[in-house]
Amino acid sequence: MFIDHAKGHYLPDLRRILERGWLHPGSVVVADNIKVPGAPAYHAYLREREGRGWRTVEHDTHVEYQPKTPDLVLESTYLGGRETGWNPAAAGPETGSLPGLGATWWRIWKFIMKAPAW
Ligand SMILES: C[S@@+](CC[C@H](N)C(=O)[O-])C[C@H]1O[C@@H](n2cnc3c(N)ncnc32)[C@H](O)[C@@H]1O
Q1: With a threshold of 0.85, does the pTM exceed it?
Q2: Which residue's alpha carbon is at the smallest distance from atom 27 of ligand 1?
């Protein structure tokens, strides 16, 4: 599964997919733009579960068209096990951070970084 949509939705959507039983042990989830614009809650979630439900390889890369701007891609293998203590109905996207601000800021960021003066 490739995750590459609204950054603040990475974690709640992953958890919804887990709740529905769509992943099985050995399923691989690849997520782009972990640093820029960033998906810190998703990153923290997988770090907390390293070796217990998930095994993640972090791939250093750069933002698309921006070789000088570091980014991170996560390649996470699901090891199995059930999530507990999470209410999908109450879960929303991340807020209070750049990812939570959504696609508009991401477009502005990309526009700035592509400006010739930069
Ligand atoms: C960076 S593009 C992904 C490109 C895709 N990985 C590809 O290679 O074609 C982001 C996509 O996420 C979609 N998107 C944005 N917010 C979303 C959301 N909340 N739920 C689902 N998709 C969303 C956008 O419409 C856009 O098509």
Answers
A1: no
A2: 5
Give me ligand 1 centre to Cα 3, in Å: 9
Q: CB-based contacts of 43: which residues, under 8 Å, 6+ apart? A: 34, 72, 74
Q: Is the CB of 9 under 6 A from ligand 1?
A: yes
Is the bond leading into 88 cis (omega within 30 degrees of zero)? no
> Helices 10-19 and 40-48, interaxial angle, to 10°?
50
Instruction: Give CA–CA dist 78/88, Å, rounded.
Output: 19
pLDDT of the chain along its 118 residues, tens only?
999 999 999 999 999 999 999 999 999 999 999 999 999 999 999 999 999 999 999 999 999 999 999 999 999 999 998 766 566 566 667 654 454 555 666 677 777 776 655 4
Q: Helix (H) and strand (E) counts for the chain? A: 4, 4
Can you list the domains of the chain with their CATH numbers?
A: 2-114 (3.40.50.150)
